[in-house]
Amino acid sequence: MSLKDTCASVWEAFPVAIESGDSLTGTINLGGLRLFGIVMPSEWTTANLTFQMSPDAGATWVDVVDQNGDEVLMAGKLVSYVAVEKPAQFAPLQYLRIRSGTSLTPISQSAARVLQLVLRSV
Which pairing describes strands 49-54 and 81-83: parallel, antiparallel, or unpaired? Predict the structure, then answer.
C-alpha cells in the first residue's frame, strides 16, 4: 500500500524511523505524494540527510544526486522543519530511503529516531 492511500488530507505528516544503530530508514512508498519537507526529532544524532531511490520497488537502491552528480543533501538540525529546496528532484520518485549522513560517511543514530515527512498530494 502506498502512502497516498492512507492520506486523509492534501497535506500529511508521515512518520518514518531510522532504527538504533542504523543510518537508513526502511522503504518509503511515496505512491504519488511529493516530499516538501522533514520535521526533525529533538534527539537527532548530528548528521545531514541524503537519499536513496529504488527503480524496482526496493530490490536495488541508488543514491539521489543532482545534475552535477552531487548527493542531494539537506541539513539535519534538531527540532526543526527542513524544507526541500527543490521538490521537483523528488517528484518522479516512488520508493525512497532517507540516510543519516552521506553515502561515504553514513552516521548511525544512537537510538531510534522518528522523522516526520511533510508530503502533499500532486
Answer: unpaired
